[in-house]
Design goal:
Length: 243
């Protein structure tokens, strides 16, 4: 069962924030649409992925987590990741775009998104790895081939580092299985074997260190008043907000 915000709840949220309900950009019909949307499982899956990464003891720290909506506002004209994250562990910092796959779309559709990421990297001059999470190891094998076929045709494949992992590779014997575990396989360096999430930076030594995070809030996004730390990638206009 899933719960969505009703008009009375929106009024409470607005009152606690000291703003008008209209400033929440809340629409009851939109909330009901979410409850019955076929995309709900996808959204919940992404949330659970980041929740596991955030709450697993000793696995590191999620410094930034941006939703699909916010990513679309910033980079949607070039790339549309399911999420953006910044993760740190044992002194390493990894910025990444997440592609969360439920097996409901063709792998060619997933692979063709690499061209958009390549253009985003070219436009911004910032290299951000793309992480593909699939439900089964069998699908991962097929996904890697589809990705590799497209990746090799990119103008500069090194500008789009890619790694894959499958949910069924998580060890159920672990008390807290997490995407931080040793389940990731770089697309261009499979000989390295599976590595933990934070170890992916060693597979891509050409990555520039992400900027040091600041505590300064960014202007509110169009979807609401939340203030989040700014990530390393910037939209092509270089202003930090959609043009």
């Amino acid at each position: 069962m899933h719960w969505v915000l009703a008009p009375a709840g929106a009024a409470v949220v607005a009152a606690e924030a000291g703003i008008a309900v209209r400033d929440l950009h809340y629409r009851h019909e939109h909330a009901m649409g979410i409850a019955h949307s076929l995309l709900l499982a996808h959204t919940v899956g992404i949330n659970e992925w980041f929740t596991a990464l955030t709450t697993t003891p000793g696995s590191g720290q999620v410094l930034t987590w941006w939703s699909e909506t916010r990513c679309r506002q910033l980079w949607g004209d070039l790339a549309r990741p399911d999420a953006y994250g910044r993760y740190t562990h044992t002194g390493t910092v990894l910025d990444f775009f997440l592609e969360y796959d439920l097996g409901s779309i063709t792998l060619s559709t997933v692979a063709n998104k690499l061209a958009g990421y390549a253009e985003l990297a070219r436009s911004t001059g910032i290299i951000t790895p793309v992480l593909l999470w699939v439900p089964t190891s069998r699908r991962e094998i097929s996904a890697r081939q589809a990705l590799l076929d497209i990746w090799r045709t990119l103008p500069d494949p090194t500008a789009v580092p890619v790694a894959t992992a499958a949910a069924d590779r998580l060890d159920p014997a672990f008390a807290h299985p997490s995407p931080a575990d040793r389940v990731w396989l770089p697309l261009d360096e499979p000989s390295t074997g599976r590595v933990a999430l934070h170890q992916l930076t060693a597979a891509w030594p050409h990555l520039a260190p992400p900027p040091v995070p600041t505590d300064e809030p960014v202007p509110p996004a169009a979807s609401g008043p939340a203030a989040l730390p700014a990530p390393a990638p910037q939209p092509p206009n270089g202003e930090g907000e959609p043009s």
